[in-house]
């Protein structure tokens, strides 16, 4: 493959390990988690005061506080939340319907079944910080409720010392059973280990900064998690039909997430590449309110590659295995057959990554740092445990399985297992064994 880099991110060849964090982040998170394990609510309050300057009488919002937050939102904001949640709910319900329970009779009298059982308790983290990501409430809380999770706790940080009204409204409307205005590692750790006032959950979901991601990594095993997440990523595959303005606008739309956001363009057209790069610089200099962040991301992590044909473009895109892959070509649906590694695919100029982030209905909690090679993003199925059951209802079937089990277990030197099989062969087929008196 011939690749011509017109722009290259600072460490394009270094590779990033999924779930990795800097030693400083690891140490800070480990210390906070251990303190919360030991000192519970007192430690939670200490870190909330330290990191967020936030120490209300109760981190949990009362019904009156939730209603006040909703009332403080513009009516149009509430209508928009309702519309987006309808979109998310519609897609999530179809996902749930695709997961069916079943029971089959594999042999006469041998019944095997599968059930999809919701997780009992889920903690959802809704980021604040630079941006109040109220859309994450739809993606995490609403999806969990549609999966049938009976208890969903939502945590979101204060913003400049205040309750984030729109985020709280979205969390409540999504179906959160309890809402806490609490951020960072202290929120994630409190939900995972449980404190005097915050119930322990079985599963954590939702995006967050490097500290939140590291907390989830360290807590994984004690609780389940949706996925290991790094900075937002965008990759655009374009041919000579792509509009440079569209390419540039959509690259910047993701670069504004953070200064370490990779934004990659792979194109078969050197003209599109050069004009898109020029448009990016023009837009960043043109008064964009988030230009300070997006400019750093583009400077350090922007990449533009020219390849000979679209097959090479798709092959290279699969190597990146990006979180968001946008296809700006004459025949965008070709990517469905040509590509395999991506968190989510956005086909054609009418479809942008921002739709997936905010409004279209698919989930925006997606794998980063090449994790799309082995996992997809958050969806209804993440909140379900697929469990099996078995029942043998005929004597003959149980006896025959007993004989098979005895032989199979003894081949592995598991005498106890073998005797469980022997007993059924004895009970139902009248086989005799020296150990059965």
From TrEMBL:
First-tier enzyme category under EC:
oxidoreductase
Positions with a binding annotation for Zn(2+): 254, 257, 357, 417
Q: Provide the residue positions that the database annotates as binding NAD(+).
A: 125, 186, 209
Record keywords: Amino-acid biosynthesis, Histidine biosynthesis, Metal-binding, NAD, Oxidoreductase, Zinc
One Pfam family it belongs to: Histidinol_dh
Specify the pathway: Amino-acid biosynthesis; L-histidine biosynthesis; L-histidine from 5-phospho-alpha-D-ribose 1-diphosphate: step 9/9
Under catalytic activity, the entry for this protein gives: L-histidinol + 2 NAD(+) + H2O = L-histidine + 2 NADH + 3 H(+)
Name a single GO biological process: L-histidine biosynthetic process
Q: Where is the active site?
A: 323 (proton acceptor), 324 (proton acceptor)
List the record's Gene Ontology CC terms alphabetically: cytosol
What is this protein's function per UniProt? Catalyzes the sequential NAD-dependent oxidations of L-histidinol to L-histidinaldehyde and then to L-histidine.
What name does this protein carry? Histidinol dehydrogenase
């Amino acid at each position: 493959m011939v690749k011509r880099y017109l722009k290259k991110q600072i460490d394009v060849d270094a590779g990033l390990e999924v779930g990795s964090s800097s030693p400083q982040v690891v140490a800070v998170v480990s210390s906070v988690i251990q303190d919360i394990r030991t000192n519970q609510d007192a430690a939670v309050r200490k870190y909330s005061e330290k990191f967020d300057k936030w120490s209300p009488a109760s981190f949990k919002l009362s019904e009156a506080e939730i209603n006040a937050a909703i009332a403080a939102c513009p009516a149009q904001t509430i209508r928009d939340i309702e519309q987006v949640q309808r979109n998310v709910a519609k897609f999530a319900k179809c996902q749930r319907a695709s997961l069916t329970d079943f029971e089959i009779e594999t042999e006469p009298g041998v019944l095997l079944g599968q059930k999809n059982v919701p997780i009992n308790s889920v903690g959802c983290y809704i980021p604040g910080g630079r941006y109040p990501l109220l859309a994450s409430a739809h993606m995490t809380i609403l999806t969990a409720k549609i999966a049938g999770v009976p208890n969903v706790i939502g945590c979101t940080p204060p913003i400049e010392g205040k309750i984030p009204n729109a985020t709280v409204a979205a969390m409540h409307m999504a179906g959160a059973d309890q809402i806490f205005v609490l951020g960072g590692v202290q929120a994630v750790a409190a939900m995972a280990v449980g404190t005097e006032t915050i119930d322990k959950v079985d599963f954590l979901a939702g995006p967050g900064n490097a500290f939140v991601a590291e907390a989830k990594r360290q807590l994984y095993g004690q609780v389940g998690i949706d996925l290991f997440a790094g900075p937002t990523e965008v990759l655009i595959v374009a041919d000579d039909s792509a509009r440079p303005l569209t390419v540039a606008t959509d690259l910047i739309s993701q670069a504004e997430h953070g200064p370490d956001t990779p934004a990659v363009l792979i194109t078969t057209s050197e003209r599109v590449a050069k004009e898109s790069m020029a448009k990016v610089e023009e837009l960043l200099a043109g008064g964009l309110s988030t230009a300070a962040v997006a400019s750093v991301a583009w400077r350090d992590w922007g990449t533009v590659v020219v390849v000979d044909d679209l097959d090479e473009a798709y092959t290279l895109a699969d190597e990146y295995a990006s979180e968001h892959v946008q296809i700006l070509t004459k025949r965008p649906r070709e990517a469905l057959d040509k590509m395999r590694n991506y968190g989510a695919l956005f086909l054609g100029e009418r479809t942008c990554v921002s739709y997936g982030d905010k409004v279209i209905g698919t989930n925006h909690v997606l794998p980063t740092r090449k994790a799309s090679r082995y996992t997809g993003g958050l969806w209804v199925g993440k909140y379900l445990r697929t469990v099996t059951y078995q029942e043998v209802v005929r004597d003959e079937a149980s006896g025959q399985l007993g004989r098979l089990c005895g032989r199979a277990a003894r081949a592995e030197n598991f005498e106890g297992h073998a005797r469980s099989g022997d007993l059924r062969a004895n009970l139902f087929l009248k086989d005799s064994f020296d150990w059965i008196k």
